[in-house]
Amino acid sequence: MRVRGVWIKYLLTGILLFSIGSAYGQLKKGRSKKVNYEEVDLEEMIKRYFGKSPSAINSLEGIYSVSAVITKTSRPFLSGHDRTKVIDRKDNYARVAILKDWPGSKRDFIEVSMSYHVANKYPIVGEFSYLTDDRGFTYRHLEPDGAKITFTMLHNQSDLMEGRYTFMEKRKTISYKLSYLKIYPKAHEESVRN
After folding, report:
1. What is the pLDDT of residues 68-108, one digit of tens each?
2. Among 5, 8, 98, 164, which residue's CB has the most CB atoms within a 10 Å radius?
3. Contacting residues for 139 by C-beta, under 8 A, at least 6 apart
4. Rounded to an integer, what distance in angstroms lies between the CA atom of residue 79 and that of residue 56?
């Protein structure tokens, strides 16, 4: 019996040492080598794109911070005044890049989310199309579930662009107001480069 117990101890010790050794080898193997490449993120790539050819860049193209305000307007019973209530306000909730789309496309510009929750994924979350003049746009916002909301946008060559979407729900008017503040390139930077 003693001989059998000694062999079991040796066998268990050997298995334990083997598993520790293989785990250590996997740990060393899993470590990555240090890379000496210069790295850039999406925002830096877009800034480099805008910095290359100022004559080819449209004044709408750039990196924007997006804010939204949702209001509800109703007229209480037997009252002559409308009452407006802010339902939700989100300041700087998204960072997007607006880029010119391919020539011949049905849309003039695309809106790419830079603050998407999945790493290395940059979905197109909106599309812009010119109205008759170069200052007005229709903006179609694309929801994750496939729904599309169309806003009317005004762009007056400054760093701020605003749009509104309004609809009726029973006897209340619901309004979504989007504000796009241009972060890069600023309007005064564009005039200096041109």
Report:
1. 999 999 988 777 788 999 999 999 999 999 988 888 888 88
2. 98
3. 111, 126, 127, 128, 150, 151, 152, 153, 163, 178
4. 55
